[in-house]
């Protein structure tokens, strides 16, 4: 069954921010009648919170901190190559920042 006599599928996409959370919102709809289609979706958008830079043994180190509804994550990079991502559900931003600092300074070792 069609939504109208002349189906014309269009797509709208925005990033919506509520409090400190961002969401990618994609809405597929018929521009003739406005009916929403099943391919529409909302995806959580991770927000970059902070970034820490350092150098050790001739390598450039970067730790990027992200926030989403499940907590914080750190993406670790050596010479701009992603090494691993670590999740910190239920931890404070201070705890996560300490983990990033500890990795940059060589105290924390990555497993993976």
Distance linking N and C termini: 51 Å
From the spread of the alpha carbons, the general shape counts as elongated
- Alpha-carbon Rg, integer: 21 Å
Number of strands: 7
Main sheet makeup: 4 strands, antiparallel
Structure description:
With 112 residues, this protein is mainly beta. It folds into 2 domains: 9-44; 47-105, no CATH class. It has one helix spanning 93-105; strands at residues 9-18, 21-30, 41-45, 47-56, 59-68, 71-78, 81-88. The longest helix has 13 residues, at 93-105.
Topology (SSEs and partners):
Layout lengths: L8 E10 L2 E10 L10 E5 L1 E10 L2 E10 L2 E8 L2 E8 L4 H13 L7
The gist of it:
By secondary structure, the chain is mainly β.
Features:
single chain, 112 residues, mainly beta, 2 domains, 4-stranded antiparallel sheet, 3-stranded antiparallel sheet, 12% helix, 54% strand, elongated
């Amino acid at each position: 069954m069609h939504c109208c006599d002349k189906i014309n599928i269009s797509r709208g996409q925005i990033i919506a921010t509520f409090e400190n959370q961002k969401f990618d919102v994609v809405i597929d709809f018929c521009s003739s009648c406005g009916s929403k289609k099943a391919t529409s979706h909302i995806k959580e958008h991770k927000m970059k919170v902070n970034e820490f830079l350092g150098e050790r043994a001739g390598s450039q180190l970067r730790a990027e901190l992200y926030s989403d509804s499940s907590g914080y994550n750190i993406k670790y990079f050596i010479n701009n190559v992603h090494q691993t991502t670590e999740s910190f559900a239920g931890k404070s931003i201070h705890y996560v920042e300490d983990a990033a600092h500890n990795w940059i300074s060589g105290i924390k070792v990555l497993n993976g």
